Amino acid sequence: MTLAYSNKPVNQNQISWFTLCLVPSSPRNVTVIVEGNALDVLWMLPEYPHGKIKHYIVWWRRSNRNEIYMKENVTSSPFIIKHLEKFTSYSIKIQAVNYVGIGNSSAPVLAQTTLAEPFDDKSSNAGATAGAVIGGILFVILLLIVLFLLRRKILKRRHNEAVTGFQTWHLSRMDGQEPESESQTDQSEDLSYVAILMDWEIMPDSLKMLETTLGKGKFGIVKQGLLTTGESDPEVVAVKMLKGKKLSFN
Predict the structure, then answer these.
(1) What are the transmembrane regions (predicted)?
(2) What is the structure's pLDDT at 141?
(3) 90-99: pLDDT as tens digits
(4) Are strands 28-35 and 70-74 parallel, antiparallel or unpaired?
(5) Contacts by 191-199, CB closer than 8 A, 24 or more apart
(6) CA neighbor of 50 nearest in space, from 5, 108, 104, 107
(7) Which residue ranges form the domains of the chain, and what is each CATH number?
């Protein structure tokens, strides 16, 4: 606010003064921070606000083109100009406004945008987080499928090796030899059953074959056995050994 002197007195021995209101001076220390394709504009109060500042006017345009400035009325610093063209130079200036009028403009500040990444875009952050979570879940599912198929392949290979080994051993015993005695037949059946146990992931040590024969016929033989599972007492089971088929127990 400025005081002005009037040399035209109202009456003798009286001096008249009146006030002259002014617009604010230009904002100070205008700074622009580049955030992808957005510009974060900061400034300080004018050195001479001449009263209360109502608002500020932020002006911007592409510096390499002779075009009209875009503007936005804001109440305070900072102000973010979003969704600009990437790799483009912009000219930014600020004006302060009080109750008298619009003040002087600050000197233009040049700033160039970079990548087209929205400034503080929460929706993009949420999308990236959701994508990462979905990708992690899919990776775990794929890993479980691979492990399942690998385990299945290993079990199948063990089964084939057990069957092939038993068939080879059985044929070698049959070629050029006399008929086997009952004890030799029992040994062959025991070895076959051990191979099947390995294929079923039952440890051979957990099943003890007893000498008691429960039954015998043209399809196979049934023997008595003791099955140990965990820390419990052995359980009496009937072991069925079928000719030409997989073995089982009840």
Answers:
(1) none
(2) 94
(3) 999 999 999 9
(4) unpaired
(5) 191/166, 192/166, 192/241, 192/247, 193/239, 193/241, 193/247, 195/162, 195/163, 195/165, 195/166, 196/162, 196/246, 196/247, 198/158, 198/162, 199/155, 199/158, 199/159, 199/162
(6) 104
(7) 27-113 (2.60.40.10), 204-242 (no CATH)
